[in-house]
Amino acid sequence: MDFVTRLATHPQANVYPLPLEGDLRWTRLSDTRAEIVLPLPDLPANHIIVPSFAQSGCAGAYGFALQFEDQSVALHPVPTAADYQRPETHPAVSTHIDCWHTQRDVSDVRLVLQARRDTAPEAELLTLSVRPLEIDTLELPDFSHVIEPEPAPLSQMQHPGEHKARICSPTALTMVLGQHELWDQSLAACYDPCTKAYGSWPLAIRWAAHCGRLGAVEAVNAWSDIAPALQKDQPLVCSIRFAAGQLEGAPLASTGGHLVVLYGVDERSAWVLDPAAPDHGSVARRYPVEQFTQAWLRRRGAAYILGKTP
Description:
Order of helices and strands: EEEEEEEEEEEEHHHEHEEEEHE
Shape: globular
Structural class: alpha+beta
Number of strands: 18
Radius of gyration: 19 Å
Distance between the termini: 34 Å
């Protein structure tokens, strides 16, 4: 099955480049906390569930839980403290820091978002996307669009820090934000002290909102899902994975998870800014569209999708 919902408050959220479906309706729990409960359809086994939440104008902490049958499994709170103890993986629904995977069919499903709300945000965006964890048969794009001018390139390998091989997510995000002067701040904001990693999807979205760009992480199912974003000249940050020989021209020989900027597509190529390039001048790449489609959409299909500044 495939499922997506996008809910927002305040007109500014309409700068998100994909269709919104309704308003967020909070239930007040206390003077400082509120929650939203979204009923979901029954979920089949071997699916990925990706929730995403963004607030502009404030930075309240929040957390997601998935309730099903008589069970509840939570993702890491955002932000996560260094001493946070990750709960044990549930045999029916496993947790993966920023998403869930169903191990069997589950029913009576609800998404619960609890957030600190002692100040009113300027705008909010809540999305939830569900798709098969892996898709064997993928369609190639039936449209062409290349954003001009391309976003300014940035190579993570030219960062002076010792963790330059691990910072593809904040580097790709910095290219999409177009705020290269904030590169170091992006790294700091995207660092998760619990996992000691820079690739937390929620932290990337949180930093983008702090920079005035409301956005979300979505599990994309097909090129048609994101065509409106590219056609509105909004580049995406795509999570890709590939084995040796599966992505011609890539600076990495293989990867189990890497973030790149997608800023165009035509009948032959995906137009990409790959932060793993050895220098800023070689960041821009054109990957064979068939190979990029497999690297991106076959498993998980995650993408950071940002709105434009109102």
